[in-house]
């Protein structure tokens, strides 16, 4: 599901531009300025887009505790809408947040669920990111051979999806896992 109006698409493009240029605070400010109207309009699809972005930003830029509530809301909304694509995104970033908070078993469960949803969706990119999360958990738990195998699988999925962000991430996994 995507934003439907040209104005919403423009707003998301502005946020995405800030995100990819590592201007997290500016992107968060844009999201926070738009969220009340999205909630007031009861526009679930647009709200989901905003929540996913906000959760990703909070999680990826070290504000993991703040991301948990946002991502839980996003996941609940994605489930209610039957939106597997955004569900995968929410599961990924919630897994990252839970990992950073030391809730490793929960992170592992989230990555596994993401992989299952991504497989059912037929999304190689989301499968790749789920495998990166699982590979990291394997590595941290001392399972180097399992970790290396998952990273290689992730690379294959990213190549199939032409994911210019995911593939280098998997290639740059700890070299001693290879």
Task: Explain what you see.
This protein has 178 residues and is mainly alpha-helical. The protein folds into 2 domains: 1-103, Alpha Horseshoe (Serine Threonine Protein Phosphatase 5, Tetratricopeptide repeat); 123-178. Helix content is 80%, strand content 0%. Helix 1 packs parallel to helix 3 (44-60) and helix 7 (124-140) runs antiparallel to helix 8 (144-161).
What sequence of helices (H) and strands (E) makes up the elements? HHHHHHHHH
What is the structural class?
A: mainly alpha
State Rg.
16 Å
Assembly level = single chain
Domain unit count = 2
Q: What does the overall shape look like?
A: globular
Question: How is the biggest beta sheet arranged?
Answer: none
- What is the overall number of helices? 9
Q: What's the topology here?
A:
Elements: H1 6-20, H2 24-40, H3 44-60, H4 64-81, H5 84-100, H6 104-121, H7 124-140, H8 144-161, H9 166-171
Helix pairs in contact: 1-2, 1-3, 2-3, 3-4, 3-5, 4-5, 5-6, 5-7, 6-7, 7-8
Concise account of the structure shown:
The chain has 178 residues and is mainly α.
Using brief descriptors, characterize the structure shown:
0% strand; 178 residues; Serine Threonine Protein Phosphatase 5, Tetratricopeptide repeat; mainly alpha; 2 domains
